[in-house]
Structures are given as C-alpha cells and as structure tokens.
Amino acid sequence: MASSTEAISLAVEHVSVTYPNGHQALRDVSFSLQGLTVCALVGVNGSGKSTLFNTIMGIIRPQTGAVRVNGLPVAQAMRQNGIAYVPQSENIDWHFPILVKDVVMLGRYGHMGIMRHPCGEDCRAVSSALERVGLSDLRHRQVSELSGGQSKRMFVARGIAQGARFMLLDEPFAGVDKRSEATLMTLLEELAREGTTVLVAVHDLRMAATAFDQAVLIDRTVVCQGPADEVLRADHVAQAFSVDAHTAQGMVA
Fold first, then answer.
1. In what order do the strands lie in the sheet with 83-86?
2. Which residues, 6 or more positions from 70, have their beta carbon under 8 angstroms from its beta carbon?
3. Which is it for the CA torsion 64, 68, 71, 76, positive or negative?
4. What long-range pairs does 89-95 form, CB within 8 A, spacing at least 24?
5. What CA–CA distance (Å, rounded) separates 30 from 11?
6. Which of 7-11, 49-53, 245-249 comes out lowest in average pLDDT?
7. pLDDT tens per residue, range 61-110
C-alpha cells in the first residue's frame, strides 16, 4: 500500500457527468490514488465505472469537477503518454488482421516522429514489453489466435512499451482462467512496485477484497474508498449494490 508521503498520481475532484438524455452517470465523484497502488474499481452495472474511465482518459468532459493524472490535466497527461488503457475484450474487433507485436508497437506511436516510423529504441521497447508479459514467442501471432489471458497481457505490454505511469484496465479478469488471472495479477503488482499506478474495474468482489491494495466502491458517487478489505465490507456492499445484508455478506465472503 502506498504511504501518505508519496505523490498523488490520480486526483478526481468533484466530477459530475450528465448525458444529453438527462441521465446522470456520475455525481460529485472525488477520490485520489497514490503511487505503488493496485486499486479495484467496484460497482454494480450502471454505477458509472465506464463513464469514469472515459472521463479519466479525456473522452468525456465532465460538467463539473476535474481530473489530474500525475499532477497534469488529462489532455496533457495523454499527450505525454502518461495513461495506458486495457479495454474489455468485447470492445475489440478480433477479426482485424494485425500481429501481436504491431498492437504493442501502437504504444510507441506517441514517441515517434511525424512519419510514425519505429526506430531501434521503439523496437527494443516492444521486445522488452513482450518479454515482460511472457509473449515473446507469440509476437508474430495474429491477435485472433490469442487466448483471453494472452490478449489481456498483450494490451498490458502495449502500456509498458508506452512507458505510461498510470494504467486503466476494464474488467481484465473476465473470461480468463484462474492461472491467467493469477499471472496477470502478479504482473500488475510488479508494475505497481516499480511506480505504475493501476486502476482496475473488477466484477469479482471476493477477488477485489483479497488481491488488491485499495478499492473504490462507487454507485454514481463514491460510496467508500480505502484499503480493499475495509471498503468491501458487507455493509458497504449492501449500500452500493442495493441488496440486503445477508446477500451482501454472500457476495464478499
């Protein structure tokens, strides 16, 4: 867990987002994360997790409030390659003909010149990232041939090659086996120890409570934030998921 003396790497301050149809997805959301942290973002479907991710990446501009990443406004942090994103599998066109190494090379585009030609440094960064996630032998494989766990590690490799110090992962454990889940979690913990702040949208409450340092529990606003095992208590889960105490206890026990 990060100490209080470490610099804040993510600050979400009084963020509210209302869509044109009048639906308020986020209401006065405020929380902060420090370095050396693997933090779970937890909430029922429709609680605002995806909207929050899109706001952190600058895709959505909030009506009120602000987000800063490593002390910078989101737009500036994005320009400096400070934010990496691992998407949900269902948001990817797996039939698009592209190799694993080329997906990871996308993380280097912000470092390339205007012609977007990779140099030796870019190629070395990609090779190092692929080795780091255990995919060196699959670098020439089509992405459609990867397993669920391998595809998640490929996108983490893209973030590593990018050199991002803040990484967002959207349900990375969905559809992967326990071995792949453990491999990916170990990798995220290693990245956190090296200075990358990691925020992960997680569906499995038991895993979130036991495997993560920190947790942010949201239901359009922040219900609770802090150490994961304290945040994901039955009473907090009951409030955020609108279930009774018995049901909530079964969700976290």
1. 83-86, 166-170, 197-201, 38-42, 214-218, 222-227
2. 7, 9, 77, 82, 165, 166
3. negative
4. 89/148, 89/151, 89/152, 89/174, 89/175, 91/170, 92/143, 92/151, 94/143, 94/144, 95/144
5. 8
6. 7-11
7. 999 999 999 899 999 999 888 999 988 876 677 778 899 999 999 999 88
